[in-house]
Amino acid sequence: MPTVQAIESALFALAPRELAMDWDNVGLLLGDPAAEVTYALLALDVTDAVAAEAKAKGCQLIVSHHPLMNVRWHQREMQTLRPDRRLGRLLTTLIKDDIAVISLHTNLDAAPGGVNDALAAALGLEDPGPLPGDESGICRVGTLKEALAPADFAAFVGQTLRAGNVRWCGEHPVWKVAVGGGACGDFIPQVLAAGCDTFVTSDLGYHQFLDAAAEGLNLLDAGHFPTENGVLPVLEAYLQTQFPALRAERSAVHGDVIRCWKADDPGGLDS
Known about the structure:
about 35% helix, about 20% strand
């Protein structure tokens, strides 16, 4: 059976470490590199529920997209290891249950065949390629087979990605589309410079919508989880190909933590 280190090496062949942003924390973050793995669980995030699922199924490894630990998000929590705090409790549980964790984050966002190629494929973009001016190599841009009205495209995105809610603005036909799974609002200037009429991403603020509308850009926020979760089937298939004896499967319990209330009248108060 493969070791944790062998699986990490294979995953870095898919999404090289050097593609990760300098602030990121990727690779083997917890566990013994020499431990053998018969069963790996895949999830976007390592949560208490995912850790419990891994233990119940007898998994020795969790492969996640979002890092188990990252100083950009967990600076204070990473200075202690206390079971009465969220991260400390999770780390303590994983250590006691002897479950390793490998995380692939911005390197998987940028990698060929990774998060954003999976997102572009899901949305049916033709000839997707790197977004010009995006030095990180994360975002992708392509075209639709035929132009759609923004409202129709927003509905298509929501249905295709199984998003609980799609926030959008814009009034121009959708044809040349950029995608950035997760929080990629910082790439809006490059999207505009590339001549895109539409950008699909997540975690956007009100003023980003306001500015995009003024610039003539259709902007869609389809949610962090829905825009990234499509990479898990890619990881599942890859690991099964690389290690035929390894059982690798997606989490059955992990889903989008965000819930959305929907009014019966989508026009809201201004209708």
